[in-house]
Structures are given as C-alpha cells and as structure tokens.
Fold these 2 entries.
Entry 1:
Amino acid sequence: MSNYLSEIFKEVPDFLSILGYQDCYHDEVSDEWVVEYLPSKNLTHSNGTVVQGGFVSGMVDSAMSQFLIYLSKGKEIPLTLDLDVKFLKPCAPDVLVIAKGKIKRKGKSVVFTSGEIYQNKQLIAIATATNKIIVL
C-alpha cells in the first residue's frame, strides 16, 4: 500500500482492490492526485475486451475523492453529489490505468473536482464532480 493511503487508512478499502488498485501519490508539480489501477478481466463486458464504464467511473471518482482526503489528513470525507464522466476511448483489461484528480474550487462544505483517466498514455475518459464535505 502506498505511504499516502496508509497515513489515512489502515488498509486499502475493498472497493479499491476490486478496481485493481496499485499505488497512489501526490504529483506536486501538477498538483494532482494520481492513482494507478490494473483492472482485471473480471471487470469487463464485450467478451472480456472492455472494462465496464461504471468501474472506470469509480476509478476517476476515487482519484478525485482521495485527493480531498489526503489534503485534510483524513479529517474530511467527500460525498459525491454528482459525477459526470465522458468516455473517449474504451478501457482495456490487464493494462495499467492512470487516474488523475484535481481540485478546481474548494469552499467550506462543497468542493468541485475534475479528473482524467489515461491508458497507454492516451486520454480515455474525463470527469467532473461535486462533493459535499463531511468533517470527522
């Protein structure tokens, strides 16, 4: 488990393991949260060739949310109010996926985020989300 997640969670949440979580980190140069996934064939349709869009959505949603959790050192939990994902190319199984999350604007109780997903250095999905912040 990445040092970043272990600072917040005792273990990787089950849903991240299902998505094929590999690692995560804060890219300080671009000020983005980066999460690496290796989605398995179990997440596919179309005879095992395309990762189902709901799983791709979960990957990018998680990248955006993890960034908020990381920045608050686990004291704020984002609840996704809306998530808009545009699929640009199919996501293949057993090929590394890079999900990136960025905070566009943060208020006291609502945060607006954006995200991107890459595979083989090609942009395959873009997303935006609105999150309600719950303070622990």
Entry 2:
Amino acid sequence: MKKPSVLLIYTGGTIGMMQDPRSGELKPFNFKALSKQIPELEKFDINLSSISFAKPIDSSNMHPGVWVELATIIKHNYKLYDGFVILHGSDTMAYTASALSFMLENLAKPLVLTGSQLPIGIIRTDGKENLITAIEIAASLIKNKPIVTEVCVYFEYKLYRGNRTYKYNSAHFDAFKSPNYPALAEAGVDIKYNTAALLKPSKKQLIVHTHLDNDIAVLKLFPGLSKKITLAILNTEGIKAVILETYGAGNASTEEWFTSALKQAIDKGIIIYNVTQCAEGRVIQGMYETSSLLKKIGVVSGFDITFESAIAKLMFVLGKKLSVAKSKVLLETDLRGEITIQN
C-alpha cells in the first residue's frame, strides 16, 4: 500500500494563536511554530505538506474571497494529495465548510476542516487532538481509496458533514452540532465510520466553482417586526435573494401587509428562501395555514437546511447566473447532501 499524502492548509483561527506573555492577548503565529507544538505530527506514516496564508485570517473576517482562494488551492493540488485538512477559526467554520461543499463539485477526496476552542500554546488545548485526528481521517484509505469523500468538520471526537453543521457553543470543546444529520464518524480508541451516512464517491472529474454572488439579505421574523424595516430590506437596491428566518415548520405572519410585501418582492424576481429558526426540524410549507400562503406566493422551501448552508448555497446558486426559475429548482434540490427532501 502506498504512503498516503495530506495537504494541511493553515488559514488562521484560535488553533494557530499564541498568548503574548506581557499583554495576555492572543496573536497569530506561523505554521512552523505550530508544528513545533505538536511533535506527534512527525510520527505519522503520512507524507504531510503544508500551505500557510501569508497573513492569518481571524474567523470573524472570513469572506467569499477566501473561499475562492481555498477552492483554488484544492484545485491546483487535487491530484497531488489523498486528502486535505484546513485549519480554520471555529466561529465561521460551518460557513466555509458549506461553501466549499458547493464549490467543489464531484469531490472524491476528504476535505476536513478543524480548529480549536483554546490555542495550541495553552496546556489544556483541544487543538492537538482535533488536528491529529483530522489528519488521520484525511489520510485514511481502504484499498488505496479514501474512506471519506466530502467536505467535513471534525471537532471533539466527532466528524460531521460540513454543510450540516453549526457552531452552538463558545464555552465547551464540543462546539459543533449536526442536528438533522448523523455524525459521519466518531473517534475513540478507533475511528468508527458511519459508512451509511457518507456520501458516495463521485467518478466524475472535479469541477471547481469560483463565482459567488453575495447580493443577499436576511429577514429574521420576530413578534413586532415592523413594516418599514421589512420593506427596507426587501427593497434594498441590487438585492437578489432574501433568507426568511421563519418560526417552527416554516411559519410566518399572515398579516396582509407582510404577505403583500413578500409577493411584490417575488414578482420583481427576488428569491425568498424559507429557513426555520429552529436548530432541529424542517420547513414544511403548507403544514399550517401560516405557511400555506408562503408556498402559494412562490416562497422557496429550505427544508432542513442550516442557516449557514443556506447562505452558502444561495451565493453558489446566484453565482451561476441562471434564471430565477432554474435557481429555485436548484435551491430545492439536494446538491451535496445538505438537505433531506421528504415527499
């Protein structure tokens, strides 16, 4: 069996921070210093290479331009490595994982995003285990073929489908959840893979999409949402889509002014994407009277998509510059395992 190869891409984030002994502030440092903190990396029977961003990016400063840069790095190195690990800040990791899942069509190798809640330089850091296991997963082969062939997030002993995750906790090491889809693997004494939950590897050539359109807005419903704010969002110049964060199973106010405002936006070609505020469950338009009107006027169902994945999917779909009708079809189609469609 050949020796597996993994490319480690360091973007920044808490995992790559060191504490200034004078000020106590956390400051980024380079990957060479990171590797010194984890001598276990040299014990791997893996060809491990690394690429580090010249200027590490704080998770809060993540943007679509960085996603394009990451997708391009994967494209240029795709045939050279068996797997990829991206070190990333945890705050926006689910957004990046979701975006890359759509941008890397026909991905047939593991791409694992990981990070930490505490910097590597701190004794109690969770970063060492996260990084070591992420690399092991990215390098795992059976009969010279990768076990995982999708974009994932690994954190605190669990491997999740990237576009199904969200960060739910900023105080504990188990920072991520995948409420509507089971874990892909769990690390204990051994790494146990949930093979039934894994995406089937694509036999087609990798296609990298780098056109994203972020002319979108979010309208989160709450009791007392004003008409002027709603209209201000829906009438924003150049807007192409709005994520409507609804109650429960996709429910919204049935007040005439609100429904009328949505319909006028839809008639102008703006896509209204119905995503539930609930962490678990799904949008079922028409289940209640309060969602039947949305379906009737042409609101697009997000089913059980996460908010993070909805953002990424909209940017990806709008970037394809299709007709509104075709864009709506894609949004209600399971493209990368991001939604579960039930008849």
